Automatic annotation (TrEMBL):
Membrane-spanning ranges: none
Keywords: Proteasome
One GO cellular component, as annotated: proteasome complex
Coiled-coil region: none
Family designation: Belongs to the peptidase M67A family.
GO biological process: system development
Record-given protein name: MPN domain-containing protein
InterPro entries, sorted: EIF3F/CSN6-like_C (IPR024969), JAMM/MPN+_dom (IPR000555), MPN (IPR037518), MPN_RPN7_8 (IPR033858)
Length: 339
């Protein structure tokens, strides 16, 4: 099994049978998350479903999906169940609603590749329309809330020749055997205009009004830095494994790493460090002053609103004070008359 980073450039071949990249739409992410929380939340199980969409010149566009009843034995990885009848009935109903959507692959909540995924891939391939050039893909949708990077990881099936398969005879020789495995494909999140509007409304509803804009900006920067650290550590582990001979070197991955390292700024230059610090301090000072001014204006408006409300309705405090003063004056007059 080979693994390539999300930023890996597409292969140079122009054949439409090769999968260049996979675009996952927000509706697929919402459906997969809902499927997981309904059937596998709090357990070690995973949710499996079918991806629907279209493909053009090796670019797969997953616009819709539906859940499939799936069970697998935790003790025996070769035993699993996938409802074929349910899958056929759902496909027939989806064709009535949207005839252009076809099966482009399947998804799993993983979060890693399981031994049954190749067998599931072969089962899903039966439902791909005849004459389809682009093969079905496998997408792992990570529904864990603590994941900072992109939640999708796409794979395609490739055939590799393994020449070290033992024959099992008395001679102890080996033969070449063709094996299937998953190879990484770049994945990205894309949406149409209508989907973008829906996602904006959804994010507006789940937004926490108690969290300030500065806190959101700081959280976003921390998330970006943690993701960058995770990717750099992954690159370091890969290079260490290649240098120790545990993995085969891949020229595309190494070239991609070289391009990423060249894009990183050289922080050893004193002028660059000073300019970055000055620029960041200026930007954060403006953000802090803006948040402070907004808070003061909000408090001022609140005070004005309270004063206007008391003037119109009255809160009763003035009448109580007048009664106390009047009672004190009456008590003083009574004492004078007694004397």
């Amino acid at each position: 099994m080979t693994s390539v980073d999300e930023t890996t450039p597409p292969p140079t071949t122009n054949s439409s049978s090769e999968v260049i990249d996979v675009t996952v739409h927000p509706l697929v992410l919402l459906s997969a998350a809902d499927h997981y929380h309904r059937v596998a939340r709090g357990t070690r199980k995973r949710a499996v479903g079918v991806l629907l969409g279209s493909s053009s010149r090796g670019r797969v566009d997953a616009t819709n999906s539906f859940a499939v009843p799936f069970e697998e034995d935790s003790k025996n990885s070769e035993v699993f169940y996938l409802d074929h009848n349910f899958l056929e009935n759902m496909l027939a109903m989806f064709r009535k609603v949207h005839a252009k959507e076809r099966v482009v692959g399947f998804y799993s909540t993983g979060p890693q590749i399981r031994p049954n995924d190749l067998r599931i891939h072969s089962l899903v391939s039966r439902f791909v329309p005849a004459g389809t050039v682009t093969p079905p893909v496998f997408v792992i949708i990570d529904v864990r809330p603590n994941r900072e990077s992109i939640p999708t990881t796409a794979y395609r099936v490739v055939e590799e020749v393994d020449s070290n398969v033992p024959t099992g005879g008395e001679g102890g020789g080996s033969v070449a055997e063709v094996r299937k495995s998953f190879a990484h494909v770049p994945s990205l999140i894309g949406a149409m205009e209508a989907e973008e509007v829906g996602v904006e409304h959804l994010l507006r509803d789940i937004n926490d009004p108690t969290v300030s804009t500065v806190a959101n900006l700081v959280k976003a920067k921390l998330s970006g830095l943690s993701t960058l650290t995770e990717k750099l550590v992954e690159m370091k582990d890969y290079l260490t494994a290649v240098s120790q001979g545990k993995m085969k070197p891949n020229s595309e991955i190494i070239a991609n790493m070289q391009a990423i390292v060249n894009l990183l700024p050289n922080l050893n230059v004193e002028e660059l460090v000073r300019s970055m610090l000055v620029k960041n301090n200026d930007m954060h000072m403006v953000i802090y002053l803006s948040a402070l001014i907004r808070c003061v204006i909000a408090l001022h408006d609140l005070v004005l609103n309270k004063i206007a409300y008391n003037d119109e309705v009255g809160d009763g405090f003035g009448e109580v004070a007048e009664k106390k003063v009047k009672s004190a004056v009456d008590a003083g007059e009574e004492k004078k008359e007694e004397k």
